[in-house]
TrEMBL record:
The chain crosses the membrane at residues 168-191, 211-231, 238-262, 268-289. This is DoxX-like family protein. Keywords: Membrane, Transmembrane, Transmembrane helix. SUPFAM superfamilies: Bet v1-like. It comes from Caryophanon latum. InterPro entries: DoxX-like (IPR025695).
Amino acid sequence: MSNKPIYVEIDIDCSVDEAWTYTQQPQLHEQWDLRFSRITYCDKAHEDEPQRFTYTTNVLPGISVSGWGESKGTHEKNGVKTSSLHFGTKQRISPIQEGKGYWQYVPKQNGMTFLTQYDYDVRYGAIGRAFDVLFRPVMGWATALSFDVLARWLEQGERPRTQYRRFFSYYLLIALFVFVWLYQGLVPKVIGQHPLEMAMLTELSPISSQHAATAIVVVGLLEIVVALLFCVRKLHRVLLIAQVVLFPLLTVSAIVAAPHVATDPFNVVTFNVLLSGLSIAALMLRVELPTASSCKRKRGASHDL
């Protein structure tokens, strides 16, 4: 475990006992924690024994990772509760071989602080350690997002399934916009330099047909830049609002330049109206969207983005 441990912390407006219930009962835990799809407690022969359990994580349709865990060492001091964890899996599809960590519940004047720190050993030697450079940040992000989903569940009563449905629907739309802008900029403009694209450009601007080929490449590159800007989360709201306004304008401009495009199959009218409507849907979905940035990722640090 030579890499930096994963640390996540969030303040929740609830009691320590309430947070303990939602994190220690497997039927509740598996609902909010993105890292686990199913958690099953094993029967204990004695009450003082550590709580052993098995878990399953669905990675992709038809692909899952199963492992074991042991929760132990819970205690109270000044109202603080701590639950240590030992976990691992024998499945070689998982980069994680074995790890240890803890959850801590710290009471505050208004609510409590829920935090975790954990680390793990990877398999496959140097290859596994190289892969972990990418995998570890994903695990940290998944932990932080899960903590925010838990906090919203405890504070606002919104169930995790609803939160995750909204979260993944929103980012599916963002991925769609990235694809549309990237494809429209790259294929018909930069690579293909489609005659219709150049004809509409010369019709709607003072650019001559002689310079249309160069101009259409510039327009294509600008559209590729828009696709890349959608990869910056802070710009999403501005870009989505701009799309709601821009797509109707592009539709009118295209019809003015080439009226026949309004009657062609799969035409610009239906395409741009659809994209404008999806932009409105994305703006609605992003309200109260769960986010990993609500958590602290370093001890004593401000909220990370």
